[in-house]
Design brief:
The complex is a heterodimer of chains A (118) and B (115).
Chain A (H helix, E strand, L loop, with lengths): L4 E3 L2 E4 L5 E6 L6 E7 L5 E8 L2 E4 L8 E4 L6 E5 L8 E8 L12 E2 L3 E5 L1
Parallel strand pairs in A: 2-11
Antiparallel strand pairs in A: 1-3, 3-8, 4-5, 4-9, 5-6, 7-8, 9-10, 9-11
Chain B lengths: L2 E3 L4 E5 L4 E3 L2 E3 L4 E8 L5 E7 L5 E3 L5 E5 L4 E6 L8 E9 L8 E2 L3 E6 L1
Parallel strand pairs in B: 2-12
Antiparallel strand pairs in B: 1-4, 3-9, 5-6, 5-10, 7-8, 8-9, 10-11, 10-12
Chain lengths: 118, 115
């Protein structure tokens, strides 16, 4: 059973370009979370999605950032017109059930996408 | 809003010695508490969790953590450290029994185990 798959592992973009980060959850998982890790900081929650629904996007910047989790295919985190401050590691996590405190579903994380904006 | 504090940026310990990585939290209601470990250029791996029940929780790789409600702490421990335990450790909390919720992570503590 493959784990959470994120691609690309490393992404370099120039200021003003678009970045697309992909996440395929573990098989059987229908809940996806995106987190951002900045240098010297912990992980910050960005968005929580279920298939075709955004459940909580309270951690997403209001502009330039969007996320989707279509019925078919991976979840996509999209950053438009990237700026240097967007440089970070972006982690996707998945769980099979609602909630992160459920006895049976700690979050399973991917290896992340490291975005560098030049 | 919930929060997690990991007061030490780095913990140094010699191999074979016991280790403790500290974590305190703030959350409304009963907490669900987690420890994750991150190796270089990797994602976070789940170590252990406290949901309810026994305050001493045992997890992967010989790690354990003790939930202390009065001190709002959830320190990670291991009786005998290994060099391979060197990594970045994150404590996380979410309110329990509130349906879905999102994990709030501490800033992480780098554990360095010397041979």
């Amino acid at each position: 059973n493959a784990g959470v798959m994120q691609n690309p592992r490393h992404l370099v973009r120039r200021r003003g370009q678009e970045a697309r980060l992909r996440c395929s959850p573990m098989k059987g998982h229908s809940h996806v979370y995106w987190y951002r890790q900045l240098p010297e900081e912990g992980l910050k929650f960005m968005v929580y999605l279920q298939k075709e629904n955004i459940i909580d996007e309270s951690g997403m910047p209001k502009e330039r950032f969007s996320a989707e989790f279509p019925k078919e295919g991976p979840s996509i985190l999209r950053i438009q017109q990237v700026v240097r401050g967007d440089s970070a590691a972006y982690f996707c996590a998945s769980s099979p059930t609602i909630g992160q405190g459920d006895n049976n579903s700690p979050l399973h994380f991917g290896n992340g996408t490291r975005l560098t904006v030049t | 809003a919930q929060s997690v504090a990991q007061p030490e940026d780095q913990v140094n310990v010699a191999e074979g010695n016991p280790l403790t990585v500290k974590c305190t939290y703030s959350v409304s209601g009963n907490p669900y508490l987690f420890w994750y470990v991150q190796y270089p250029n990797r994602g976070l791996q789940f170590l252990l969790k406290y949901i309810t029940g026994d305050n001493l929780v045992k997890g992967s790789y010989g790690f354990e953590a003790e939930f202390n409600k009065s001190q709002t702490s959830f320190h990670l421990k291991k009786p005998s450290a290994l060099v391979s335990d060197s990594a970045l450790y994150f404590c996380a909390v979410t309110p329990g029994n509130s349906g879905y919720s999102t994990l709030t992570f501490g800033k992480g503590t780098m554990l360095l185990v010397s041979p």
